[in-house]
Design goal:
The chain is built from 5 helices and 7 strands, in the order βαββαβαββαβα. By secondary structure, the chain is of the alpha/beta class. It has a single domain, classed as Alpha-Beta Complex (Spore Coat Polysaccharide Biosynthesis Protein SpsA, Chain A).
Length: 195
């Protein structure tokens, strides 16, 4: 039984551009690095997580595995990561974003507290996006990722198409990703300190 956590990441210069009206490029870089560091640390501290890998162009200075981004967007990158996990014999794949500043190892442990053939989905704060997925392997080997508009419903439908049960997991640490300026109150501890 091997559980692999994958975290897709953008190049630092293109991350969190929707925050450019309120944060300088340097401040966005500090925020992105701090949030990613927290997600990786929480995964490392979670019993049952065997492997952690970033998907993207860089390790961002972290001591983790790096999977190349094949191009074609987030869903294509995750399909490649799913195929690699199946080929490597992993028994579960957990997908986490790198922008969860309040995530804890307890949140990730919930993504492991599942029956063998169950898909776990963590919705975002608005209950329409997806902030985490936990997929059983090889049962979900042909799961179709649908990150984008209404991804939570799309991922529930993807599980159903494979005949897999699914369950929603809702915690503040998994729900509160950072996309818009109004979300920044949830990331105050990750923002650079003003001089």
């Amino acid at each position: 039984m091997t559980t692999r956590v994958v975290i897709p990441v953008k190049p630092p210069e293109t991350a969190k551009l929707r925050l450019s009206g309120v944060l300088s490029p340097a401040a966005r870089g500090v925020l992105v690095a701090a949030m990613l560091g927290r997600v990786v640390a929480a995964a490392r501290d979670t019993p049952g997580v065997d492997e952690i890998a970033l998907i993207g162009p860089s390790r961002h200075g972290l001591d983790v595995a790096l999977m190349p981004d094949p191009g074609g967007g987030l869903n294509a990158a995750l399909q490649a990561a799913l195929l690699a996990a199946v080929e490597d014999g992993a028994s579960r794949l957990i997908v986490l974003p790198g922008d969860l500043p309040q995530i804890t190892s307890q949140d990730i442990a919930l993504l492991l507290s599942t029956r063998d053939n169950e898909v776990l989905i963590a919705p975002d704060r608005h209950a329409n996006g997806t902030n985490a997925l936990s997929l059983p392997l090889p049962e979900a080997a042909i799961f179709t990722f649908a990150f984008g508009t209404d991804s939570c419903a799309a991922h529930q439908a993807a599980a159903a198409r494979l005949g897999l049960t699914h369950r929603l997991i809702a915690t503040p640490g998994l729900a509160r990703d950072i996309d818009l300026p109004q979300d920044l109150t949830d990331a105050s501890s990750c923002l650079p300190k003003e001089p």
